[in-house]
C-alpha cells in the first residue's frame, strides 16, 4: 500500500496544479526519498551486523528492482496507478526537455548534454 501513498503524493499535486493554474495558483509537492523504516530494513535484509554494507558504495537503492504484488488492490486502483504513472512519465519528459534547453544557456562547457 505504500506505493498507493507515494503515487497519490505525486499524482494529486499534478491534478491540482492543472485545476488551479487558471486561478494563478502554483502547486508544489515535496516528498521524502527512500524511507529507512524498520519494516523496510527488514524487507531489505538489513540487520545490526550488516547495516553498514547494505549501501556500501553510496548509490541509492533501486526500488524498481523489487517485486510489487499488484493483486490486492481493486482494478479501479490499478487504473489510477497507470494514470499516475503516465502523468509522471509525461512530467519527467517535460522536465528533461526543459533542463536540456536550460543547459544550453549555461556558458563554459561545450560538451553535449546526455540524452
List descriptors.
mainly alpha; flat
Walk me through the structure.
The chain is mainly α and 115 residues long. The chain has a domain at 74-105. It is built from 3 helices and no strands. It has helices spanning 2-20, 38-43, 75-103. The longest helix has 29 residues, at 75-103. It is flat.
Give the gist of this structure.
With 115 residues, this protein is mostly helical. It has three helices and no strands.
Shape: flat
Q: Name the structural class.
A: mainly alpha
Reported for the largest beta sheet, the result is: none
Number of strands: 0
- Summed over residues and divided by their number, the pLDDT gives a mean of 80
Give the assembly state of these chains: single chain
Element string (H = helix, E = strand): HHH
The percent range for helix content is 40-55%
| CA-CA gap between termini | 34 Å
The percentage of residues in β strands lies in under 5%
Number of helices: 3
Radius of gyration over alpha carbons?
19 Å
The residue ranges in which pLDDT falls below 50 over 5 or more consecutive positions are: none
